[in-house]
Write a structure and sequence with these properties.
This protein is α/β, with parallel strands linked by helices. The protein has helices at about 5, 20-30, 40-50, 70-75, 90-100, 115-130, 160-175, 180-190, 195-210; strands at about 10-15, 35-40, 55-60, 85, 105-110, 135-140, 140-145, 150-155, 155, 180, 220-225, 230. The strands form three sheets. The chain has a five-stranded parallel β-sheet, with helices on both faces. It has a four-stranded antiparallel β-sheet with strand order 6-7-8-9, with no helix packed on it. A hairpin with a 2-residue loop joins strand 6 and strand 7. Helix 3 runs parallel beside helix 4 and helix 7 (about 160-175) packs across helix 9. The longest helix is centred in the middle third of the chain and has 18 residues, at about 115-130. The chain is elongated and about 60 Å long. The two termini are about 30 Å apart.
C-alpha cells in the first residue's frame, strides 16, 4: 500500500500479547485498507490509545500485565472509541462483563476474518451515528466519508495528514457552528496545548490548501475573527 493510501485509512489499535495474532491481524487488516497499531500488553495499549487516537480498538482480555476489563474501563474514562473484544473466553458472564464495562462487541477466538471485518464496519458506523454526524458529509466541492476516512475535493482524493484529518473530522461533526480556538486545540492536540494557537493557524493554512479551490479566498473553512473557525455548509457542486 502506498504512503498516499495510508494517510486516510481507518486506524485500528490491536492490543494482544500473542505475536501470531497481531501479525495475522496486521496482514489481514492492511489488505482490507486499515492501518494497524500494535501493543503487546495493557499498559502499552493504553499509551498507544492516547498517543495515536485510533478509530477502533481490538482488545484481548487475557493480557500479561492486567485484565482487559481494566483496559476498557481506563479507555472509557476519556474516549468513546469503538472497542471490540477478541478473546478465547466463551462464558456468557465474560461477555456480559465486557459489554457492561463499555465494549461495543465481543468476538470469540478462533474467529473468521469476514465476521470480524463486518463487526468492525458496524462499530465504526455506530460511532458516527452516536456523534450525531451523517456517515458522509458533503459541502460544496468537499466530500468526507467519516466511516472510511475518505476525503474528496472536487472529486479528487485529498492527501491529508492524520492531524489535518482529525481537525476536519471535528469541524464536520459541528458543521455550520463556530468552534473556539481553545475547543479545537483541546480536541485535536489535548488539554496541554489549549493555548498553542500557532499550531492551529498552520494546520488551517495547510488544510485550506488541500480542500479549497482558492486557499486565499476560502469558502469552506471560515475564520471567525477573535473567536475561532467554522466549516461552512454549501450546496453540493456538480462535477463538470
Amino acid at each position: 500500500m502506498t504512503d498516499r493510501a495510508r494517510v486516510l485509512v481507518p486506524r485500528v489499535l490491536v492490543i494482544d500479547d500473542e505475536p501470531q495474532i497481531r501479525r495475522f491481524l496486521r496482514v489481514s487488516l492492511d489488505a482490507d485498507g486499515y492501518g494497524v497499531i500494535e501493543a503487546g500488553d495493557g499498559g502499552e495499549g493504553l499509551k498507544a490509545c492516547v498517543r495515536e487516537k485510533p478509530d477502533l480498538v481490538i482488545l484481548d482480555l487475557g493480557l500479561p500485565d492486567r485484565d482487559g476489563i481494566e483496559v476498557i474501563q481506563r479507555i472509557r474514562e476519556w474516549s468513546a472509541v469503538p472497542i471490540i473484544v477478541l478473546s478465547i473466553r466463551t462464558g456468557e458472564a465474560d461477555k456480559v462483563t465486557a459489554l457492561d464495562h463499555g465494549a461495543d462487541d465481543f468476538v470469540t477466538k478462533p474467529f473468521g476474518m469476514g465476521e470480524l471485518l463486518a463487526r468492525m464496519r458496524t462499530a465504526l458506523r455506530h460511532r458516527v451515528q452516536v456523534e450525531g454526524a451523517e456517515p458522509v458529509f458533503v459541502s460544496g466541492r468537499l466530500r468526507v466519508d467519516l466511516v472510511y476516512r475518505q476525503v474528496l475535493a472536487a472529486g479528487q482524493p485529498a492527501r491529508l495528514s492524520p492531524k489535518e484529518y482529525d481537525l476536519l473530522r471535528l469541524l464536520v461533526r459541528h458543521a455550520g457552528k463556530v468552534l473556539t480556538h481553545r475547543h479545537i486545540l483541546r480536541e485535536v492536540w489535548g488539554p496541554a496545548h489549549e493555548h498553542d494557537t500557532q499550531y492551529l493557524r498552520v494546520l488551517f493554512r495547510q488544510l485550506r490548501q488541500k480542500i479549497e479551490a482558492d486557499a486565499t479566498h476560502p469558502r469552506l473553512l471560515i475564520t471567525e475573527a477573535g473567536v475561532g473557525y467554522r466549516l461552512q455548509i454549501l450546496e453540493q457542486e456538480q462535477p463538470e
